[in-house]
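Review this today:
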Amino acid sequence: MPHHEPYDPSHSFLMECRHAISFSQNPLIIGYLTVKTLFSTVGLGLCVVLFLRETDLRKTLHFNARLIIVVHFLSVMVNSLAQATTGAYDLLRFTVLTSTGKCSVPLLSHKYAVFVNVPVILSQNMDSLTLVALGIERTVATVLAKNYEKKKHRLISLSLLMISSLVSIWWIVRFFQKGHSKHAEHNLYSMITVPSEVSGDNRLNSLFLALLEIVILVIFVVLLAFNLKLKRAARRVSAPLAMKYQVEENLASVTVLLSMAFVQVLIYTVTFGLNFLLGHHHDLDHENESSLLFTNVSVIYHVALPIIWLIQARQKRKSVSRQAQSRIGSLAQDETKTHFDILKDLFHENAHKIGR
């Protein structure tokens, strides 16, 4: 029988305190927390502005796609807010705040460190799962292009969102079960808002999300190619008007979604790589716990998403402006031609009278 040392809370406190002080003196950790907080805050602000102002771009989408896009944006905003809050709190603890207790750096309750990860994990999974839902919805819109616009098919988006939510909730339940099995009574304190027992889950989760995003990317590439082929068929005079509209909507939306999926593939591939390289064991010891800080680069997506949509909205406005100018120019040419024809007729009529 292996001999287990009796648990000493004071020893655990001193270890956490010592490592927290070393964190506060590490410029890399302070720099990362600053960047994380800045990106999350800027991304949240951009998403809110985009969500409130650029409503015309969403209105061009079918109800199903619009509903899923709204949920996707909300999950990104929740993730931004959660990461900005945890990043700012960790940064303040290591730079500004002082403790009235025995440790000069305020320590976290371990239960709090686990709890604040719930919205991060939940919203991060929803970011990817809603993109999967959009891929499935756009596939249905492509296959049923002739009558998809006429029929609302609202159960499609609601069903896909329900499945995405259930998968995310299952992952959270699994996370808590795993944390409970790690003898949480021995983990009274934590120096960062990323508890060490989530290292293995982070690695598995990031691998799952990276593979999922690759599948999504392939789906959107295939949809783009297929809709370009449908566009040629939709140009025929005999093609239904609803089909022409749906194909144009599919092309516009898939172009944006392809960019979103590409960015997420890069983010979760890098996250998995960092998890794999920095976390060699399923559970990190206290010396290596700091590496958990550097394994989540999803804050990049918080800024990339609104930028992608702002660019698309700007291109949409330019396209509408060009079309309007083209119509005005065409009308002006027609009116000028009509005026010349009238003058020509008058000239010929007067010339005929003079000749007589």
Remarks:
- The chain has one domain: 9-302.
- The chain is about 75% helix and 0% strand.
- Residues 9-302 form a domain with the Rhopdopsin 7-helix transmembrane proteins fold (CATH 1.20.1070.10).
